[in-house]
Amino acid sequence: MNSTDLQELREAVELLENPGWIANLTNLIGVPLESAISRLPRRIKVRITGAVTKSIRVALEIAVKTMDQTKEVSVSNWIHRAAVGGTGALGGFFGPWALTLELPISTAIMLRSIAFIARSHGEDLTVPESKLACIEVFALGSSSSSHGSLDASYYGVRIGLARALSEAAEYIAAKGLADEGAPVIARLIARIAARFEVVVTEKVAVEIVPVVGAVTGATINVLFINLFQKMAEGHFTIRELERKYGPEEVKKQYYKLRQDAD
């Protein structure tokens, strides 16, 4: 691997393994995030689960049915951040009860931003595998401790999702989303939603802190999309290098760089 590509890989490792999301939220509210999460009522946790599943299902439908490389408009990621910030102001004003409406909209906007980053790294978004790689980004971004028994490292997430993604890509290539309730599709949605829910729970826990209102809700959502833009940048840098050097070589160098950084 040449020095330029090695530096790009080093930057990707830093993005993917140190997202900084937890520190940003803790600084925003001034109390440990775990404390805020522990105070979430059960009814809100149930609402989060429903909103997350709906959001991933909507994102998958958008990715498969409308993500066309020839039609996608290239806009600045700052435009996407501003749009998501606007939906965050809504969520900050109405609280977690607006989540069912706000989160699918925010997720759809973030997906467009992720697709823009994917194309900048040479992804062909007319094929199912690349479309699903965009959805895969929503499984990234939280800390290992927040995931409990789930492996939150970058390659840990990819390994955990590999079979579900492969089966879904084959199904979509053959049948599209004609049957959105097919077990293979439902399984992929559930796997990604389980990881996305961790980050969304962290977000909602901060939003219900008494000092948080509409303005801070917008700030939280800007941090939210910035997190997944960073994950997308790292993810698609890795995929671009894998096409150039092969997955095993990139993975070997990735682990070496991660070890050197510890």
Task: Please give the structural blueprint.
Layout (H helix, E strand, L loop, with lengths): L2 H15 L3 H9 L3 H6 L3 H25 L10 H18 L4 H22 L7 H9 L7 H4 L6 H22 L7 H25 L6 H32 L1 H15 L1
Helix pairs in contact: 1-11, 1-12, 4-6, 4-7, 4-10, 5-6, 5-11, 6-7, 6-11, 7-9, 9-10, 11-12
Summary keywords:
single chain, 262 residues, mainly alpha
Q: How many DSSP-defined strands?
A: 0
Shape: globular
DSSP helix count?
12
Low-confidence stretches: 70-75, 144-150
Mean pLDDT: 82
**N-to-C CA distance:** 22 Å
* Residue fraction in strands: under 5%
Radius of gyration over C-alpha positions, nearest whole angstrom? 18 Å
Structural class based on helices, strands and sheet pairing: mainly alpha
Q: Order of SSEs, N→C? A: HHHHHHHHHHHH
Helix content: over 70%
Major beta-sheet overview: none
